[in-house]
Design a protein that fits this description.
The protein has one domain: 434 Repressor (Amino-terminal Domain). Helix content is about 65%, strand content about 0%. The protein is built from 4 helices and no strands. Helix 1 packs across helix 3 and helix 2 crosses helix 3. The two termini are about 15 Å apart.
Length: about 70
């Protein structure tokens, strides 16, 4: 699952707007928007913070399988 899909999935699962998720993660609305559109990839630090946030909210992503 690409990072942009993960952002969309988490927002849908938690019923959050882009602004709400941005506030939760300590980034700007524009950052969330760019991540979702795939225009920008997160830094390693931001990606790690997102992973911790998901773990805290008990959100898991299915492991990709090679077919």
């Amino acid at each position: 699952m690409e990072f942009k899909e993960k952002i969309l999935y988490v927002r849908a699962k938690l019923n959050l707007s882009q602004t709400d998720l941005a506030n939760e993660l300590g980034v700007s609305f524009q950052t969330i928007n760019r991540w979702e559109l795939g225009k920008v990839s997160p830094t390693k630090k931001a990606e790690y913070a997102f992973e911790l946030y998901c773990k805290e909210k008990n959100i898991k992503f299915e492991k990709e399988t090679n077919k």
